[in-house]
Write a structure and sequence with these properties.
This protein is an alpha/beta fold and 165 residues long. It has one domain: CinA-like (Maf protein, Alpha-Beta Complex). It is built from six helices and five strands, in the order H-E-H-E-H-H-H-E-E-E-H. The relative contact order is 0.17.
Length: 165
């Protein structure tokens, strides 16, 4: 018996197929989405051929340990497009991937350790190392739960990955 775990038209399956066909790889550095993108990727059979690494860096400390420039965080805040760009470029370099995705932002809460940055805004960067192209997006999340907000962010990321890859 063959079991199918994805729906026809599943965008993540399409992303994995495109990456595989083009012999490209992807890695992620996520903060507020807590690994939701990496989870979506690894739910697809064959993703191990293209997915190199997923980092959940909730704290500034571990963003910096992996290689995000501390000065970027200090100057722009951890909740900024500049930090998302640094996350995407850092994870691409760290893993030698073709694509890197950086996601940072606030979901339904005030962060007492990082008071700067707009509430309920998520910053996303998809970095294409081969063309040295930075693709940036932001989304205002307004759903009732963190889970629903994460789903909205991942939906946008998948749409943008399909356009970029």
């Amino acid at each position: 018996m063959f079991l199918c775990y994805y729906k026809i038209g599943d965008s993540m399956k399409e992303i994995i197929e495109k990456l595989t066909k083009n012999n490209k790889t992807i890695s992620t550095m996520e903060s507020c989405t807590g690994g939701s993108l990496a989870n979506e990727i690894t739910n697809i059979e064959g993703s191990s051929e293209v997915f190199k690494f997923g980092a959940v860096t909730y704290s500034n400390e571990f963003k910096i340990k992996i290689g995000v420039d501390e000065e970027v965080i200090n100057k722009y805040s951890v909740y900024s497009m500049e930090t998302a760009i640094s996350m995407a470029k850092t994870i691409t370099s760290y893993t030698n991937s073709n694509y890197g995705v950086g996601i940072t932002g606030k979901l339904n809460r005030v962060d007492k350790n990082n008071l700067f940055g707009e509430d309920n805004i998520v910053y996303i960067c998809i970095y294409d190392r081969d063309s040295d192209t930075i693709n940036t997006f932001q989304i205002k999340v307004d759903k009732e739960t963190r889970k629903e907000n994460k789903e909205e962010v991942i939906k946008l990321v998948k749409e943008k990955l399909l356009e970029i890859i």
